[in-house]
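Narrative of activities, Objective 1.

The group set out to show that a structural description can be obtained from nothing but a protein's sequence at a throughput compatible with the screening campaign. Below is one input-output pair from the validation batch, recorded exactly as produced.
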Amino acid sequence: METLNALFSGFAVALSLQNLFLGFVGVTLGTAVGVLPGVGPALTVALLLPATAGFDPTGALIMFAGIYYGAMFGGSTTSILLNTPGESATIVTAMEGNMMAKRGRAGAALATSAIGSFVAGTIGTVLLTFVSPFAVDVALKFGPAEYFSVMVLAFVTVSAVLGASPARGLAALFLGLTIGLIGLDSQTGQARFTLGVPELLDGLDIVVVAVGLFAVGETLYVATYLNRGADIIEQMKGSIWMSKEDWKRSWKPWLRGTALGFPFGCIPAGGAEIPTFLSYATEKKLSKHADEFGKGAIEGVAGPEAANNASASGTLMPLLTLGLPTTATAAIILAAFQQYGLQPGPLLFDTQPELIWGLIASMYIGNVILLALNLPLVGVWVKLLAIPRPLLYAGILIFATMGAYGIRNSWFDLALLYGIGLLGFVMRRYDIPVAPVLVGLILGPLSEQQFRRALAISQGDLSIFVTQPISATVLAITVLVVIVPQAWRLVRRMQANAIGHHSPI
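Output recorded for this entry:
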């Protein structure tokens, strides 16, 4: 009952004219950036951070959240009609959705994607509503040692597990941790890594780093390497509505995709890529129409799209209750909280209940708005694909430059923006993930603070991290997260070698 009362008070906040307008702007902008290839929610939120510095925190965060799950909605349009995923999480949708479009069933593919996203997003938000208070109760039992161990888990999973190369992921993480140390030490007041530059005494501005890595770096990379060849857009043919058979084949994949997506969104570095691929594999195994997979099976669109959107709701769970980002976009939203002097975590539910519950309530409203925007207006979104890419990239760079300069009206910030942007470009060129840099930059100082507090409590005894039950459990999970995938690959390699050794010549 207490949760429901808090949610109803959240609706009162979310339904105010200002917040309703900002939520509408967020989901509309999110859908647009989801449609545009190479322009994701992380880049868009990073661009808007400087522009929203003077906004009310609740309204700004409602808009950022709308951009996040709106992009999850919009990415399917590009995947289905252009066979170009607008977001990495919609790669699976492109596999089956584009084949459906080629067969003249683009309408059904877009419909099952939109309705599945609505169903999954709504269920995910319900789970977020009722599970968050329990997560907060658990988080309130955390001390400095437990928080430090959880951040170590986040560091390891973000950098070493999901990327193509653990070494590259860890290199990016340590780069982020290093630049997070720049500035004055919080306890001694000594300058660290400032190289005698006065502008660095306050540290690197998170907003400038985020805009540089995502807006400048990503844009330079996309403009350089992904701007070749003509795009072929599949034409909309037939009805946009789903047939009775389509509904029958879609509703179970929607529910199964939701069940996969939400938990993976909650875990550190869960993201949406793993549950979407798992959902696709599950539907292929369970479907009575397995022969259609690879040729345009509607289950291959319905399940992954549901998993995609459910994971977006799940991502907000660790962000709001523990202050831990599990995706690049969540890391930038965390930077937005810090821009307003707020630190997400269990105490924020007590100190800023209007903000937290207003944000959660806005997601219910946003899902309804998105369903109304996506199906009837699909023709409008398709026209966005006609925007010349050079104009698009030039516009992004102009907004990035204006935003970074507007923070402190400093030319140093501009030089820093493009220096970090070039670094981001090089990282993307050599397949070094950029998300760990931002996670290291944001969580690095916090983890250092918790580490020092834990040692102060234990009088310098490092065993506190393994003698506290919760901390020891989290560190054990961290070790397993690193070892198990490597051991599994080794076993598979040995099995493959054994089969090859015993096979007849």
